[in-house]
Amino acid sequence: MDLATHLRRSLTWDQGAEMAQHAQLWIDTGLDIYLCDPQSSWQRGSNENTNGLLRQYFPKGTDLNEHGAEELSAVAHVLNTRPRKTLGWQTSAEALDRLLKQDMMERVATTC
């Protein structure tokens, strides 16, 4: 599923080498891209939280190539279907579904 363009707002990246193509991504998507200051993990809190959750399954330094796609997908499923306090104890899928339905209703209402 493609996320509607008007629902994509920004992307926050750290300063790692893997993020070197941020300028091209900005050109391709028009997203506002923010680069965190070095040694400032609090600037991307949800990412750090997710890293902590992943460490429950894969300790730091784990070679993910040693784990099959099925195992990685299973862990992703567990984390993606986990209710989040910040979302009113909904899963991310439930919160997104609610947002998309709300957006659809607002679009219908403005065309009437």
Overview of the structural elements:
With 112 residues, the chain is mainly alpha-helical. It has one domain (9-110). It is 46% helix and 7% strand. The mean pLDDT is 84.
Concise description?
Required for the transposition of the insertion element. The protein contains 4 helices and 2 strands, in the order βαβααα.
Features:
112 residues, mainly alpha, two-stranded parallel sheet, 4 helices, 2 strands, 46% helix, globular
Inertia-based shape:
globular
Q: Give the tally of β-strands.
A: 2
Number of helices: 4
Q: What strand order characterises the main sheet?
A: 1-2
Which parts are unreliable, with pLDDT below 50 for 5 consecutive residues or more? none
The biggest beta sheet, please? 2 strands, parallel
Number of domains: 1
Give the strand content.
5-15%
Structural class: mainly alpha
Order of helices and strands: EHEHHH
* Ends distance: 27 Å
Rg (C-alpha, Å): 17 Å
Write the layout of secondary structure elements.
Layout: E1 10-13, H1 22-29, E2 32-35, H2 45-55, H3 69-80, H4 92-111
